[in-house]
Write a structure and sequence with these properties.
alpha+beta; single chain
Length: 188
């Protein structure tokens, strides 16, 4: 009798461990995944070596919003992390370091400290329009226009090799920095 009880207990533990492993796998690969930031294109928001949590499933249901920080596949096995500036139908223009979307001025609070720190008194983002870079007047349906926060050192939608980002190439949105611990914060 005791042998049967031990066998049932062992079977119960095996099931519990199996379910835990499946849940961990599902959460890790289907819902959230860690990503290491490489390069300085998203400074000061994200720095080289920061580890971020990427929400892969939530935005698929709720959608992506302007100013979300996203990860997208640029080439096979090469992902970029950038900020959505333009959504379908938007006309984008930068003038005197001001973002104008459909003629309306938008504040980019996440860049304020970076702009203050410029030592050359120049602009962080050069003047441009979509037409100048991508020969389009508005962001096409099914695409995003993205920029790195480090506007002077970012390969992003301004580069014709990247251009508009197809929505189906978006992996997820960067939600939080979890390492290094002194940079632990939600991404805005």
């Amino acid at each position: 009798m005791r042998e049967v009880k031990e066998k049932n207990e062992l079977l119960g533990w095996g099931k519990a461990i199996g379910i835990a492993v499946l849940l961990a796998f599902g959460i890790r690969f289907l819902l959230f995944t860690p990503v290491v930031v490489e390069g300085a294109s998203m400074m000061p928001t994200l720095e080289d070596g920061d580890k971020v949590v990427v929400n892969k499933i939530g935005p698929r249901f709720a959608g992506y919003d302007r100013f979300d920080v996203i990860i997208f596949e640029e080439k096979e096995n090469i992902n970029y992390i950038k900020r959505i500036i333009g959504v379908p139908g938007d006309h984008i223009k930068y003038e005197n370091d001001r973002l104008l979307i459909n003629g309306k001025d938008f504040e980019e609070d996440y860049l304020k400290d970076y702009k203050k720190a410029l030592i050359d008194n120049g602009t962080l983002t050069e003047d441009f329009t979509l037409e100048e870079y991508l020969d389009e007047t508005t962001v096409p349906s099914g695409y995003f226009f993205v920029l790195g926060d480090n506007r002077r050192r970012s390969t992003d939608s301004r580069d014709p090799m990247v251009g508009f980002v197809p929505m189906e190439k978006v992996v997820g949105s960067a939600e939080a920095i979890f390492y290094p611990l002194d940079r632990l914060k939600m991404i805005k």
